[in-house]
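--- STAGE predict ---
source: upstream dedup step, 1 unique chain passed
mode: sequence only
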Amino acid sequence: MNEKQFLRMPLLMKEVRVSKSKVESQKGLKGKIIEETKNTFTIKTNEKKIKIIKETSQFEFNNEGQKITVEGKTITKRPTERITMKIK
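--- STAGE serialize ---
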């Protein structure tokens, strides 16, 4: 599965790591996506739930052993829009 196909999949309950963020305290956070809106992911870590702004972050997903890195600004869309978007 390539990155374009992956981005069209539902991301709820996927494991994610914030690899870059303008918010220093969010860099390196790992957890499961429990909510997705147009502009944010809510990630549940071991300690708490944290809202991450997509636009200013970069995310790493592990999909069946394949590491997929995604710039948040490419997926700043509602989940239903993201699933049907055309990616170049």
